[in-house]
Amino acid sequence: MTASCTTAELRDTVTMLSSPPLIRLITEIDDNGPIPPRGLASTLADLSTHQLRQTADLARTLGLIHVRPGTGLGLTEAGTELADVYDATARWARCHAYPSGISDFTTRVQHTLRLMTETLAPDTADGPRCQTGDHLPSAEWDADFVRACDLLRHWLSAYQQAACLAESEPAA
Question: What residues form DSSP beta bridges with 68?
Fold first, then answer.
């Protein structure tokens, strides 16, 4: 994201990236490879047709997925790197029992991204940076959190166009 990004724009972008159907779509493709043509409904069977369409459209608009003829929906480089952000945030959350010890992957990612949004400051030339403060309970927790936060910061900086598009799109 650019140095002119406001805290509200940053929060809106991360909120969009925190959409449960988007998290599931990106991680499904990352974990299991491309989704075959016409296979999206059976792959994410608990989502409605409307949710699937809206999520796939959002992912395409953000440049996270593309359609490969004969193989189906696959991840772009931006999508693969976002999957890495999702994995790192979920690992951090699981390690620190955040938001609770029995949370699922999507909940861990959502809550950790929300916490990261509270600590990202958009006012540097390199893009948003993680600010730590009194809300973090220990130095170890703080250092691990900063590392996960830096992955998100890198993604937001590397894929500014996707982040800018996110600011104008409705959440899935």
Answer: 72
Extract the runs of DSSP E, i.e. beta strands, from 21-78.
65-68, 72-75
User: What residues form DSSP beta bridges with 72?
Assistant: 68
Distance (Å, whole) CA 51 – CA 37:
17
Report the SS3 class of residue 130.
Answer: strand
Q: What are phi and psi of 132, to 5 degrees?
A: -100, 160
Cα distance between residue 46 and residue 49, in whole Å: 10
Q: Is the pTM of this model over 0.90?
A: no
Total residue count of the chain as it appears in this document:
172
User: Distance between CA 153 and CA 147 in Å, rounded?
Assistant: 10
Q: Domain-by-domain residue ranges, the chain?
A: 79-158
Distance CA 8, CA 26 (A): 24
pLDDT at 74: 97
